[in-house]
Amino acid sequence: MEIKNLKKTAQRILKAVKNKEKIVLYGDADLDGAAAVIILADTIKNLGGKIAAFYFPDREAEGYGITETGLDRLKKIGKNVLLISLDLGIGNFKEVKLAKKLGFEIIIIDHHEVLDKLPEAKIIVDPKQKEDKYPFKELATAGIVFKLSKLLLSDKMTDLIRKNFLELTALATIADMMPKQEENEMFIEEGIGYLESSFRPGIKVFFEMEPFENCANLSQKISKIISILNVRDVENNLPASFRLLTNSSLKESRAIVEKLLEKNKLRKEKIAATTEEIERRISGQISSVVFEGGPDFDFTLISSTASIICHRYQKPVFIFKKLENESIGTVRAPSGINSVSLMKKCSKYLLTYGGHPAASGFRIKNENLEKFKECLREQ
Fold first, then answer.
1. What pLDDT does residue 5 have?
2. DSSP notation for 190-241
3. pLDDT of residue 116
4. pLDDT at residue number 63
5. DSSP for 236-270?
6. DSSP structural state of residue 114
């Protein structure tokens, strides 16, 4: 049994490569999104195709998923473009309609929770679709794309290519906190075994630098690698993880990692300060959820802060950055609580929302913040 529409997607991509169509890869800026984009890009290149553009939306400036800003920037590529979204898109109903009007043909490859309906994309691949009978629903997007690459490359998938893709799939699966079960267990067990002998300079450099040599074991090194790859550092609209994992120079890779190590040190200090501020605010509160935010919160830190608070207090945590008219937030929920289902019950107050049961996000007009908070607390 195969994931619904995976074979259909492979056939459409093969047709696009054969006809020399323009292909855009539109990925989330986290490690799973970046890894999925890299695997699919390398697969298409191995088939003789070309990528017309890569796009990673800036969550703080544009919002999450396929965005109007992103589509506006990409429309200069022209009409009849095949746009493949990776690790996002399943909740972008309005944006997919706009994309179609602009002449894009959309394929969505995602693994997030499906909301009440599906976007009007040409093809949707998401194991969490109701009609999808594939038994394992907890793949990272990189895991889905690894399976797609096997269909696309067939006997062209050499042992070297397979190992290369499994390295990225393992990192993405761990980073996205997917359960270490079934196929994920294979991806992780096999993929991490190849990391120390990787041909990618952006991976190899980690095993040659002092901060990583001091780690007690491979598991600690991988945790540190993932934390560095998740540091927000964007250049030319490309996240650091994408730039590093596609870099062909050890020297340049080392310079990127050194920069990220310094940023990560400052990041940890800021996360500690933000966590302390939130704990001060909620001290003495009796509530089923933590709901805090403000204009001074750093959007790049709120996910990590939410994870810490959620772990300590074992309740759903909603933390947001307040902008001029809207707020963007992140959600973390303890085991047994579905954060997406919580927001679904209060979705009339939200502009967009979505993600995983344990980790998700939202965008909301500031005028609805208090109503949303009260709705959540009434559940």
1. 97
2. HHHHHGGG-S-HHHHGGGGSHHHHTSSSHHHHHHHHHHHHTS--EETTEEHH
3. 82
4. 77
5. TTEEHHHHHHT---HHHHHHHHHHHHHHHHHHHHH
6. P
Whole-model pTM: value is 0.92
Each residue of 33-55: b (16+ CB within 10 Å) or e? bbbbbbbbbbbbebbebebbbbb
Q: Which pLDDT does position 214 carry in this prediction?
A: 76
Contact at 8 Å (CB) between 337 and 314? no
Q: How far apart are CA 317 and CA 299, in angstroms?
A: 15
d(CA 336, CA 345) in angstroms, rounded, equals 17
Q: What are phi and psi of 104, to 5 degrees?
A: -90, 140
Residue 217: what pLDDT? 82
Tokens for 166?
A: 């499994």
Nearest to 353 by CA among 374, 324, 376: 376
Place of tokens 């499994």: 166
Q: Tell me which amino acid residue 290 is.
A: V
**Which tokens go with 94?**
């309005």
* C-beta separation of 331 from 360 below 8 A: yes
Q: Are 24 and 55 in contact (CB under 8 A)?
A: yes
Mention every residue, 6+ apart, whose C-beta is less than 8 A from residue 4.
125, 127, 129, 131, 132, 133, 134
Instruction: Report all structural domains of the chain as residue ranges with CATH numbers, in order of start.
Output: 6-199 (3.90.1640.30), 200-271 (no CATH), 284-378 (3.10.310.30)
How far apart (Å, rounded) are the C-alpha atoms in residues 344 and 348?
A: 8
- Residues of the chain predicted below pLDDT 50: none
Per-residue model confidence (pLDDT) at position 210: 79
